Amino acid sequence: METGEALGMSLRGHTSCVNSVAISPDGTRIVSGSAARTIRVWDADTGKPLGAPLQGHTDGVSSITISLDGTCIG
Length: 74
Prior knowledge:
Blueprint: E1 18-23, E2 29-34, E3 39-43
Antiparallel strand pairs: 1-2, 2-3
């Protein structure tokens, strides 16, 4: 870890800082919540966003979880 090398890829798409990240139980999806009141779902293999940002929060998203069966984001 002292080499300074990146361990993965950058996920680009939020317009503000990311406050929380969760990985689906099967490892195929990454979900991130930002200070810009949006949630994004990403393909873990490609790093590409899946669909448009999920909007409607009245404040920044400070924490995020994925259900054990991978069907719900909370």
